[in-house]
Design goal:
mainly beta, 11 strands, globular
Length: about 250
């Protein structure tokens, strides 16, 4: 495992504007100062090292949401596309993302949910895409995997992240009542980029070089929002990987 310490501070401002009944735009400004320390010399790389990084970025986002409910959807779709552009001071990089979800009621009690996520990021002006700005992995979108199971690794086997990601998720929900919604799922995706060890991934985004998992979960509607508990099982785990794991969080998938 790669271990290190980060200390950070920052500030942000977000503004939003409704376009019509089903769509809106947001603009966010973020400033952050991130100090990284105690990186093992064996794990030092151009994007992970002991030092301080400053980021000043703007993030526009456009959202279309035609689901019948934001909290407990049963039909409809939503699309979210946006980016982050840093370079107003400090590191220079950009990140682009697209996420879409579709709900279909097979019956009044059985709901299908299909979701896709894609992201790409890179640096410019001679900078290197630093560790905090890279796609390091997403255990929430590929359940059953730790964040350090995905993407390129360094010579010591530590995760280094990548500059692109691609995920597909399929769920079937059973609406037991207004509070409980058990479901089954199948996930497919990966993190892509350069690294010493590309076992289980690829340098560029690929529909064939993807990790997979399946499992069961439960959504519980609470006063603070949906609570999501699930267990994901890896399909074809690599040597040394655990076969699966529990995940717990607030909210369902997009």
């Amino acid at each position: 495992y790669v271990t290190f310490i980060t200390e950070s501070y920052g500030a942000g401002l977000s503004l939003g504007k409704a376009i019509d009944e089903y769509s809106y735009m947001t603009f966010k400004y973020d400033f952050s100062n991130i100090k990284t320390s105690k990186v093992n010399p064996l794990n030092v790389s151009p994007f992970l090292y002991n030092g301080t990084n400053v980021s000043s970025s703007i993030s526009p986002m456009y959202v279309i949401d035609k689901r019948d409910s934001k909290r407990k959807p049963t039909e409809g779709y939503n699309i979210r596309t946006g980016g982050e552009f840093a370079g107003l001071g400090g590191d220079k990089y950009y990140k682009l993302s697209l996420q879409t979800g579709y709900y279909y009621p097979f019956t009044s009690k059985i709901i299908g949910h299909l979701m896709g996520t894609a992201g790409y990021g890179n640096s410019y002006g001679g900078d290197v895409l630093k560790s905090y700005a890279r796609y390091i992995g997403n255990g929430r979108l590929l359940r059953g995997y730790r964040y350090d199971d995905l993407g390129p690794k360094d010579s010591a086997g530590g995760v280094v992240g990548g500059n692109s990601e691609l995920y597909f998720n399929f769920e079937v929900h059973y609406v037991y009542n207004d509070m409980l919604r058990p479901y089954i799922f199948y996930d497919r995706g990966n993190v892509y980029g350069s690294g010493f060890n590309l076992r289980g991934t690829n340098k560029t985004m690929s529909l064939t070089e993807m990790r997979q998992s399946y499992g069961i979960g439960l959504l519980v509607d609470t006063p603070i929002g949906p609570v999501n508990v699930n267990y994901g099982i890896k399909i074809s785990p690599l040597p040394g990987e655990r076969g699966g794991q529990f995940n717990f969080g607030l909210g369902g998938l997009f």
